[in-house]
Design brief:
The protein is mainly beta. Helix content is 11%, strand content 36%. 19% of the residues are buried.
Length: 220
């Protein structure tokens, strides 16, 4: 099975799924049907190999002229989301421009990596953002129970070092969760059931790829 290919998908929400032995597991429902190849990236022209994929149809009135002109060359209807996936040369030949990438590149039990934009949490303190334990709440401590403590010294280095864990914006960033498992491929319904949660809010878009670092086999 090729480990380079992937799909774009839309997160519909979470539900429960029962395995054959009756075990109930939480799953995320991802709509993944309708991935269309919109362009090829080649070594000669672009310096790298990739498939450009469009997903989720959108009205032409919602696109600007450069976007419409780009899709017109490939004779593909306007897409809401367009992403590029690095692939091998054989995949460019197997997936010509205008063709749809089938969901069958995945199957039940496949290990995958899912990339999406995490939920934005706004401005948060160090306890929620970085799991600080907070200051002690006894023996004269006053109004600093959820503070982060010292952030440096005035003498050396005389400044706050870059990367210091402090309060600030939390979430709303690109996140990849590795080694999730596909519980079921429902081709007729056009959805994938992925075991466990995936990044992002409901109706958010994610990229699904075959896992690049599958877990090691357990030793006996």
């Amino acid at each position: 099975m090729n480990t380079k290919m992937g799909l774009l998908a839309k997160k519909l929400g979470m539900t429960e799924y029962f395995l054959e032995d009756g075990t109930r597991i939480p799953v995320t429902v991802l709509a993944a049907k309708g991935n269309v190849v919109t362009a090829h990236r080649t070594e000669e022209r672009d310096g790298y190999l990739a498939l450009q994929i469009g997903f989720d149809e959108q009205k032409a009135s919602r696109k600007n002229k450069p976007e419409l002109g780009h899709l017109k060359k490939s004779e593909v209807t306007p897409k809401r989301v367009i992403r590029e996936l690095r692939v091998e040369a054989a995949e460019l030949e197997a997936h010509p421009i205008g063709s749809e990438i089938p969901m069958s590149i995945f199957e039940a039990g496949t290990k995958i990596d899912v990339t999406g934009t995490s939920k934005g949490k706004g401005f948060q303190g160090v306890m929620k953002r970085h799991n600080f334990r907070g200051e002690k709440a006894s023996h004269g401590q006053h109004e600093v129970y959820r503070h982060g403590g010292s952030i440096g010294c005035r003498l050396t280095p005389g400044r706050v070092l870059p990367g210091k864990k402090m309060a600030g914006q939390m979430g709303n960033e690109r996140v990849t969760v590795q080694n999730l498992e596909i519980a079921r491929v429902m081709d007729e319904q056009g959805v994938l059931l992925v075991r466990g949660p995936v990044p992002g809010a409901k109706n958010g878009y994610v990229v699904i790829r075959h896992a690049i670092k599958p877990p090691r086999a357990k030793k006996n």
